[in-house]
C-alpha cells in the first residue's frame, strides 16, 4: 500500500470532523473519495497533506512504508505527496515560471542531493506545456491572476507533471473546469502510471472519464461500509 490510514480522528477548533477512519490506497490506484458536502472529504485531504489547520487527535498516517503523522506539509510534499487544492489563491508578483522552477528544484534536490540543471528544467517545462497546450506567454504571468477556473486547473496539472509525485491528491479537480478541461484532467490522470491518485468529485460524468479503480464513501466523518 502506498497509503495506510489507521484509526484516524481529526478535529478543527475542538470540533471532531473525522472519527476512526481506516483507509488503504494501493500503488497505482485511481481512488475516488465521495460523499455529501460536510462529510469530511476535504478534511481527509488536509490531514494527509499536512494542513496545520487540522488537529490529529489519534491514529496514524503511513505513506510509502513510513509514518508521516507528525511531519509538516513541506516534508510530506518533498517525500512525494502532491495536493491539488479546490481553491488556489492568486499570488501577484510571483510568476508561474519562478514558482515551477523553485518547486521542481526543491523536489530534484531532495531526491538526488544535486541542483536541478536549468536546461533540464526548461526541457521538462516545454514538454509539459506542450502536453497541456498551455501558451508560452502564460508562464510570465502571476500565479492564477486573471486566470479562469479551467485555466487554473491546467496550471495545477503543469505543476503535477513537473514534480512527478508518488501520490497526487486532487480535491474536486473538475470544479470550475469546462468539459474540455475535464477531459484533459482525466487524460493526464490516466497517463501517469507511476503516480497514485486520490481524487474527490461530485460529478458522475467526470468520474466516468477517469474510471476509478477504488471508491470510498464518507458520511459524517466516517467511512461508509458498502
Description:
This protein is α/β, with parallel strands linked by helices and 226 residues long. The protein is globular and about 45 Å long. The protein starts with a strand and ends with a strand. The protein has a single domain (3-224), classed as P-loop containing nucleotide triphosphate hydrolases (Rossmann fold, 3-Layer(aba) Sandwich), CATH 3.40.50.300. A 6-stranded mixed sheet has the order 6-9-10-3-11-12, with helices on both faces. Strands 2-1-4-5 form a 4-stranded antiparallel sheet, covered by helices on one side. The mean pLDDT is 91. α6 (179-191) packs parallel to α7 (204-210). It has 7 helices and 12 strands. It has helices at residues 41-49, 73-78, 96-112, 118-132, 149-163, 179-191, 204-210; strands at 3-12, 15-25, 30-34, 55-63, 66-67, 81-84, 91-95, 142-143, 167-171, 196-200, 214-219, 222-224.
